[in-house]
Amino acid sequence: MKIKTLLSSAAVLAAVFTQVAASDAVVxxxxxxxxxxxxxxxxxxxxxxxxxxxxGHIPGAANISWHTDLVDNPNRDIVNKENFEKLMxxxxxxxxxxxxxxxxxxNWFAAWGVWIFKVYGHDNxxxxxxxxxxxxxxxxxxxTIAPDIRPTDYKVTEVNLEIRARLNDVVAVAxxxxxxxxxxxxxxxxxxxRVFAPAGIQELSIRAGHVPGAVNVPWVAAVNPADGxxxxxxELRKIYAxxxxxxxxxxxxxxxxxxxxxxxxxxxxxxLGYEVKQYDGSWTEYGNAVGVPINNPAGTVWxxx
Amino acid sequence: xxxxxxxxxxxDDPSDGGRPNVETPGIRxxxxxxxxLRVFALGLAVLAVHMTFHLHGxxxxxxxxxxxxxxxxxxxxxxxxxxxxxxxxxxDLFEGKDSRAALAMILALIVGVTAHTVLFTAWIRNPLAxxxxxxxxxxxxxxxxxxxxxxxxxxxxxxxxxxxxxxxRLGEGSLLAPISILGAFLGxxxxxxxxxxxxxxxxxxxxxxxxxxxxxYTVAWAIVAAALxxxxxxxxxxxxxxxxxxxxxxxxxMGILHAVFTRRWPAWVGGLIVGLLSTxxxxxxQPLGVTAELNRLARVAGDALKFLxxxxxxxxxxxxxxxxxxxxALSMNALFVIAIVVGGLIGAAGTGVISxxxxxLKAYPLALLGGILLGWGAYIALGCTIGTLxxxxxxxxxxxxxxxxxxxxxxxxxxxxxxxxER
Lengths: 305, 423
Fold this sequence. Notes:
- The complex is a heterodimer of chains A (305) and B (423).
- Chain A has helices spanning 2-18, 29-34, 52-55, 81-90, 104-119, 131-137, 167-174, 188-192, 233-241, 261-271, 282-286; strands at 26-27, 41-45, 62-63, 98-102, 125-128, 164-165, 181-184, 214-216, 251-254, 276-279.
- Chain A is of the alpha/beta class and 305 residues long.
- Chain A is globular.
- Chain B has 423 residues and is an all-alpha fold.
- Chain B has a two-stranded antiparallel sheet.
- The longest helix of chain B has 25 residues, at 398-422.
- In chain B, 52% of the residues are buried.
- The chains are: A alpha/beta (305), B mainly alpha (423).
- The A-B interface holds A 55-56, 59, 136, 138-145, 148, 150 and B 59-60, 62-65, 122-126, 128-135, 283-285.
C-alpha cells in the first residue's frame, strides 16, 4: 500500500516536472491530460460565452459561471465570502486541492477567476496554458457530462485585499500621492481616447482616454498568437520593461470593465512575480467618476463633435 | 415449430440451454405459478425505483450511480423480456436455422454504432488526432483478446450462456447460473494470477485500435454498416415464415400489457433498445460492462488467500472492465450488476410464471468449467460480451470485432458439449 502511494505520488511529481510551461502558475495541456483522474486536482471552466461548457468541456471539468458564481449581484462587486465558500464546496475543493481554471478567449475570465481565488486565499490555483483554444486546437477529447462531485465544507480563512485596487488607490497614483506603475491593457484606440469603447460594446464611460501616467500594453501582447499560451518569462519581462513596468514599484492594472485586466494581472504577478493590484472598477468606473483627472490625447468629447 | 396455439406465442423455455420455442418432448417443467409473483415483481420494481432516488441523494454515490443503477435495471429487464442472449442467438442459428435473434443482435450493433458516432462527434472533433473518446470501451488489440474471445465462447456453450445472460437468468430460477458465475469468479482469479506476464509481454505494447482514427467517422461507420448489412442479408434466408394462423387484431390495452409483461418480446425490440441503452450508458456515466466488479471481488479474495502476485502491473491502466479504485462500499459496476439481476427478476416474476430449470447432473460440472472459461476469457480479453463486444464494437474498437469473431468460433467448437450435457 505504501509502495503504491509512493509510486503514484512519484508519478504525479514526474508529471509536474515534465511540464514545459512559462511558469509554475500554469499547467500545460499535456500535464492536464495526464491528471484528469488525479483526485487532488479540480478542473473548472470559466468561459465568457454561455453554453460553451455545455457544448463540450474538458472531461471531468466543472463549470463556473462568471455571471452568477463570481460576482455579487446586484452589487457591482466580486462574489462575497459566503458565496465563494459555497462555490468552492460545490466544486468539492479542499484547501489542499490544486484548482486548474481554463476558459475561452485565451483565459480572460479564467484569469479573473484565479484573481478571485487568490483574493479569498486559495493559493493553489493555476491556469491551463492556452486555455480552451489550445485544448481544442490539439483536438483533445471533450465531454458533455457534468461531473459528480462530492461537496466539501470549504472555509475561507484569509481575505487578501492587497491584490485589489479601488478607485481611491488609482486616483492617488494619478494625482502623484502614491507611487505605482499603471498598466492599461485596452486597445491603443481606447487608450488614446479615439474611441469611447471597442466596436460593438455598449457599456462605456462618458469620457475617453486613460488614467494619467498609465502605460498601454494591450493584454494580447502577453500571449503567443498561434495558440494563446503565455509567452516565455524572458519575453514577458522585456515586453513590460520596455514600457517601464519592471517590478521596481507596485503596479495597478485596469481595462474597461475590470475582467480582462486580470489576464495581465496574472502575467505580472503570477508569472513575473511583481507586486500587482488588479483594479476591477477599471475605466467604466474611473472614466465616469466625477472630478478625477484623466488624460485624453485625442481630445474626444462624449456626444460632442 | 410446434406451437401451442396459433394465437398465443408460447412462453419460452427459460432452461439453461436457452432454446426457445421448441418444446422438449417428454419433460414437463415444474412451474411456480402464482398471482403473488406479479405483486412481488411490482413491489420489487417500486423498491428499485426508490433505490435510484436514494442513490441520487446519497453523498457517496450521487447522480451517476443513480443512472447506472437505473440503466442496469432497464438492461436486465429488457434482456429478460426480449431474451437478449448471445448464446441463444448463436444456438438458434447453428441448430434451429432461425436467424431472428442474430438479426436483433445486428440491429443492436448498428443502432449502437450510429448513436455512439453521434456522441463521439461532439466529444472528439478530429478522430485522427490520436485521442480516444472519454470513458469509451476501447481496448488493446492482441492475441489475448482473440484467445479470450474463443475461451469465452467455449465457456458459453459449456455453461449455457454468457455472464450477462446468467445474471438475468438468476431471476428466472436458473440453477446453472449461480454455478457458472462461481466458475467465472474462479476464472477471473486465474486471469489475475497470470496477469503480470500477459501484461508485460503482450498488453503493454499492444495497439489500441479505434476504427474512426483511421479515416474518420464516416468511413468507419460506413465500413461497419456495410459489414453488418452484408451479414444481415445473408441471415435473411433463415428468418422463419410467418405463421399463417396469426391474424392481426386491433390492439387492446390488455393485449399490450400482456405483450409487454407476459410474452417474450420480438427479438428485434430488444436489439433496438439495447443499442440505445448502451449509448445512454456511455452518455450518462460509464459504458455497459458486467465483469469489472467480478474481477474486483476476485482480486480481493485472491489477495486475502495470498493466491495473487503482490503487484499487478498496469492493471488499472485499461479502460472498460478493468479493476477500478476502491472507493464506496459498492462500486458503480457492482450497482450495475445488482441492477441487472433485479431487472431480470422483475421481468421474470412479472410474467407471473417462473419455471426453474432441471438440468441433468452432468450439466453442473460442465457449467462450473464453462464458468471458469468465461471468467478467464473475459479477464484476458479485458471484458465480456457486454463490455468488449457490445460496448466495444459500439465505440468503434477493433478489439470488439476480434472478440466477436473468436467468440462465435468458440461457441461452435464447444457446442457438442452442450448437446452432450442435455442428452
